[in-house]
């Protein structure tokens, strides 16, 4: 039996006790801890951005992030330019996080294409640093909150109606209009940048209708239904 003996703590400035292994702290690389005895040397700079270089985002509003390797930053400004374009399509100061080690900006929906994001960091001493990252936007841009039909009354009891889609898509698609479970108009409609004129409504009487947008192909399915009024 071994008597319990209180352990003697070494003085802070003294050597570690026998059997003690100093490991330090730092980032993990390839499953191994990389010891760092001091903060990163050099001035504060941008260490990482999101979306990353070569990244892809959808044509919806999205956040852009910049991670900093130190707290000595006065401001970070974001400018987004279409690749090869003459001027930014979006520019704004980024908002720092609580710890001052990251910044974010909310970017509105952009048209599909390739873009270059330029991050300009200003330090407390007035010096600056610039980081550039390219990314792509894919898909049709969201231009309104929901699909909608807008109609106006013409002379002699006629009507004209237009379709507004959520996204700025372009193409030709099948549709049908129903009233009281009966189809009253069927056909194809041309849409450009999310906007199109609905054919076949001119002579419809006043009342409540439903516009069904149909999938392409031989077997057509309804992918959107929009209620509208003719007055």
How is this fold's topology laid out?
Elements: E1 28-29, E2 32-33, E3 46-50, E4 55-58, E5 62-68, E6 73-82, E7 88-93, E8 95-96, E9 102-107, E10 113-123, E11 128-138, E12 148-153, E13 159-164, E14 171-179, E15 182-191, E16 195-197, E17 207-214, E18 222-230
Parallel strand pairs: 4-11
Antiparallel strand pairs: 1-2, 3-5, 5-9, 6-7, 6-10, 8-9, 10-11, 12-13, 13-16, 14-15, 14-17, 17-18
Short description:
The chain has 231 residues and is mainly β. It has strands at 28-29, 32-33, 46-50, 55-58, 62-68, 73-82, 88-93, 95-96, 102-107, 113-123, 128-138, 148-153, 159-164, 171-179, 182-191, 195-197, 207-214, 222-230.
Model description:
This protein has strands spanning 28-29, 32-33, 46-50, 55-58, 62-68, 73-82, 88-93, 95-96, 102-107, 113-123, 128-138, 148-153, 159-164, 171-179, 182-191, 195-197, 207-214, 222-230. The strands form five sheets. A five-stranded mixed β-sheet has the order 4-11-10-6-7, with no helix packed on it. It has a four-stranded antiparallel β-sheet with strand order 3-5-9-8, with no helix packed on it. The chain has two domains: 46-138, Immunoglobulin-like (Sandwich), CATH 2.60.40.1220; 148-230, Immunoglobulin-like, CATH 2.60.40. The protein is elongated and about 75 Å long. Mean pLDDT is 85; it is low at 1-7, 19-31 and 33-39. The chain is 0% helix and 51% strand.
């Amino acid at each position: 039996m071994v008597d319990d003996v209180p352990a003697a703590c070494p003085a802070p400035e003294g050597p570690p006790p026998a059997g003690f292994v100093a490991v330090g702290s730092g980032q993990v690389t390839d499953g191994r801890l990389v010891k760092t005895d001091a903060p990163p040397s050099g001035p504060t700079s941008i260490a990482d951005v999101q979306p990353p270089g070569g990244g892809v985002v959808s044509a919806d509003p999205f956040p852009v992030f910049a991670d900093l390797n130190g707290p000595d930053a006065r401001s970070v400004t974001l400018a987004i330019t279409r690749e090869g374009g003459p001027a930014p399509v979006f520019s704004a100061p980024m908002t720092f996080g609580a710890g001052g080690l990251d910044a974010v900006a909310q970017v509105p929906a952009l048209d599909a294409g390739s873009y270059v994001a330029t991050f300009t960091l200003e330090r407390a001493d007035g010096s600056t640093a610039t980081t550039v990252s390219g990314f792509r936007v894919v898909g049709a841009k969201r231009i309104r909150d929901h699909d909608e039909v807008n109609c106006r009354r013409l002379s002699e009891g006629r009507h004209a109606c237009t379709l507004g889609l959520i996204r700025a898509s372009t193409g030709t698609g099948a549709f049908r209009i129903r009233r009281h479970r009966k189809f009253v108009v069927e056909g194809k409609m041309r849409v450009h940048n999310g906007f199109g004129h609905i054919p076949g409504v001119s002579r419809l009487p006043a009342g409540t209708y439903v516009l069904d947008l149909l999938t392409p192909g031989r077997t057509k399915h309804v992918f959107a239904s929009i209620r509208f009024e003719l007055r």
